[in-house]
Amino acid sequence: MAFIAIAAFLLSFFGSRLFATACPTCVVVGRGIHFHHFWYGIGMVALTGWLAIVGRRTERLDRAYALVYGLGLGLIGDEVGLLLTFGNYYSELTYQIFVGAIGLIILGALAVRFGERLRKDLLGMKRWEVVGLVGFFLAGFSTLFFAFDQELLGILFALSGTLAIVLSFRHRHEVMPGQAEN
């Protein structure tokens, strides 16, 4: 689960950095308030934490929780400079390199330490489950585009993610007992 969460964190963090760098003027402002994407991240982290505490727990749900949790942490992590400087989003802090290096080191350490479990977690997933997790990531990552007032991209990512989730859910329930679930 940790590998999935950290991989989602890195993808979300670097995707957020890339988008914010490529489109620095794309922001959502309502009634004079700039709605930063760390709020979406806080919501994702809070939701998955709550679901992990009180929700139904299965290995598949735990993977989904880990993915959304990592996605939310990446959205929060992207705005660490803003949060630490109380408003300077473009501060000269080198946290991008630090976070990236730490994330890669952690992924490497997890791969070495838990290689067998990692193989079981990743290679043991059915195709429909992989499609569903990609769908969760796309739908969750769409919040970044909404935060930057890029509704069309947000809608495309959200719809793509939702479609993947629906297709994976339908495929899972269409598989008859005794059939292969790939």
Notable traits:
182 residues, single chain
Structure description:
It is a single chain. By secondary structure, this protein is mostly helical. It has a domain at 2-124. 75% of the residues lie in helices and 2% in strands. The chain has eight helices and two strands, in the order αββααααααα. The protein has a two-stranded antiparallel sheet with strand order 1-2. It starts with a helix and ends in an 8-residue tail after the last helix. The mean pLDDT is 84.
Judged by helices, strands and strand pairing, the structural class is mainly alpha
Radius of gyration: 17 Å
Distance between the termini: 21 Å
Count of extended strands: 2
Largest sheet, spatial ordering of strands: 1-2
pLDDT averaged residue by residue:
84
Low-confidence stretches: none
User: What overall geometry do the principal axes of the alpha carbons give?
Assistant: globular
SSE string, helices as H and strands as E = HEEHHHHHHH
Break the fold down into its secondary structure elements and pairings.
Layout: H1 2-22, E1 29-30, E2 33-34, H2 38-54, H3 59-78, H4 80-85, H5 95-113, H6 115-123, H7 127-147, H8 151-174
Antiparallel strand pairs: 1-2
Helix pairs in contact: 1-3, 1-5, 1-7, 2-3, 3-7, 7-8
What is the structure about, briefly put?
This protein has 182 residues and is mainly α.
